[in-house]
Structures are given as structure tokens and as C-alpha cells.
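Weekly modeling sync, notes
Attendees: S.R. (lead), two postdocs, one rotation student

Agenda item 3: backlog of single-chain predictions. S.R. asked that every request posted to the team notebook include the full sequence so nobody has to chase files. The rotation student volunteered to paste the first one in as an example of the format we agreed on. Action items at the bottom.

Example entry:
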Amino acid sequence: MKITGILFLLIMSAFTLSAQIKINPNEKLVYTASYTMSGMLTSFAQITLQTKTVKTSDKTYLNLNMQATTFSKWDTYFKIRDVYESYVNPTTLVPSMYKRDVLEGAYTKTEKYIFKPDRKTIVATSKRKSDLEKTNTFTTGSSTMDIVTALYKLRTFDYANKKAGDIISVTIVFDEKEIKASVKYHGKEKIKAGPLGEVECYKISINSQTETMKGKTGNYIWITADSKRIPAFFKFQIPVGTGQLTLTEVK
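Predicted structure, as returned to the notebook:
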């Protein structure tokens, strides 16, 4: 299962920021990615999320970085070395630039988006293997964002004012296309989350709007119900079964 596919299933949002929740720089979260193989849950990759402050001559950005790396024993079968990152406003999390560098088996792709929210456009540059670099400008909604920004903005939403069963329509941009999805809030639930121990979390599910209308809610995220809003556990569906991201390190 490609990491790109997992991210596409799990990360979608266009939420309003809560004044009480802020994503801090110098945060590091590490997860183990696993999926069901021959009836057994098998670990195959490490996912790392990190933030840091980046300053230019006239602006300050929050860099949101996400890396996916297969464990060495799997590299012979299907090597993954993916990097996704966004540069966002530290307060509003509005993205200015998104970059993607993907190596998944024989598949490679680099991609960069420059967001122009005042014009509701994105300038996208992409390249695959030995192909020529392509540039495309396309129109988006004013709140459309990339998948990395979406994951972090998802954490800032005020779930305390939501009721179990509430559904919110959301939009992301992926592969130069806007994608409509739905986030359903399921209430609070206590789970064991590795280094965090047992914690109370907000439980949400994320699916395409078509799947939501059919009652399908197979992709879940548990977010700690505290001021840090750490994504404590992920569970997702793939064509051959199920998978999960388990939290292993918090800094």
C-alpha cells in the first residue's frame, strides 16, 4: 500500500482555527505504519512529523514536514522514501508553499505548489522520472489546502462544541485536483497511545463525500482531547485489508 494512498485517505480538512489551540515549532511525532498481511498485523514503515520555524528576509513561516520511510528489510520488495512539507502562516496555518518528493518502488515524482489565496489559484510545478518538468496554474477555493497543512489544521478545530454524528464538508488539493470529503465526529474515547499512556481522545472518521453518503466510515483518527491535540492513533482501510499508524515517540 503506497504511503500516498494512506495520506489521501486520512488527511482532509478546511476547518476554522480555534483560538486556544496552536501548533508549536520544534514538535516531533513518530509513528509505526502497519497493515494486515496473511491475517497478521505487519509493521513496514516509519512516519515522522516535525515542525520548525523558518524565517526569510520579510516573513516567518512554520515548516510542516512529514517523512515516510520503509524499514530496511522491506526495501528490496517496495522501497519508500517520501517527503511532504508545507510552509504556512504560524498563526492561521494558511499555506504559502507545498513540496512533495516521492519515491515508492519504481514510482518517483516531485511536486511544488505556490498558493495565491487572494487570486484563488495555485501554481503547480511537477516532474516524474525522466519527463520534462510541467507547470500548471489552476483555480481553487479560498480555503483549499494541501494534505500536510490539512493534517495540522485538523488538530486545531474546536471539537468540544461538536456533537457525535456531526459531519463537516472539507476540501484539499492533491495531484492538482480539488477533492471533496467529509469529516464525521464520533465523540470522545479513551485509548492506549504508546508513550502517552491511556489518554482521552476525540475520535473522527474521514472519507470521500460519496462514501459518507453510503454510510462508510472506515478511516479513523484519534486526537488527544487536550491543548496539544496530538494525533494519537490512525486506522485506515486499504483494498487488501486494514492498516494503522501507532504513535511511538513524542518530542
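Discussion: group reviewed the output briefly. The longest strand covers residues 40-55.
Action items: rotation student to repeat for the remaining queue; S.R. to check formatting next week.
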